[in-house]
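Sequence dictates fold. Below is an illustrative record:

_____
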Amino acid sequence: MPSGEVLVTCQDAALTFGRGATAVVAVHGADVDVRAGDRLAVVGPSGSGKSSLLHLLAGLERPTSGSVSRPGLDGPSAIGLVFQADSLIPALDVAENTALPLVLAGRTEAETRLPVIEALGLVDAADLADRLPEEISGGQAQRVAVARVLAQAPRLILADEPTGQLDHATGAHVLDVLLAAADRTGAALVVTTHDPAVAARLTIRRTMRDGRLLAPEEAP
């Protein structure tokens, strides 16, 4: 992976929900490049537009105006998403949840076995493989959600408040795992957070305020 290669770029990208008098602008004209190897924190309070920006980067939402392009990515499987809310499928055990993106991409059960074992090992969750989501704690579930992303070996990892619902120790461990996995695979990592201590662990920091992604020199 070429160092500094642009993976995804937003150019004056805006996102509006609704129309007319009820329209809500979630993101105003954001400009940002995410390059191979980046460790980017998008910082701001709840409701500032961080998640909406992440959805634009991921392709989960299309910009209302402006553009988002992914010149360094070869498809959705190159992006791994860690959601803030619980995202495990209740009917699937931990191993099956971890394997799900690989299965959806067309891999056989035999082809998913090794990456699932390795990913669960990275987050210290190998012993949970046969448990259902209802049988594990919230912190364990978030670690499994991270493992599900790591099993994909994506070029870009997008994590939406991955530590927001965890205690300090568990949150720190999840961030350790994300940073180590990004270093190991060479993936870019973008983390949204309201926690300055989390943001301080990433090398690039941008602030969102009222839906606006501030330029670095504007950040408070």
Notes: The helical segments are 50-58, 94-104, 109-122, 138-152, 168-185, 196-199. The CA atoms of residues 115 and 151 lie 5 Å apart.
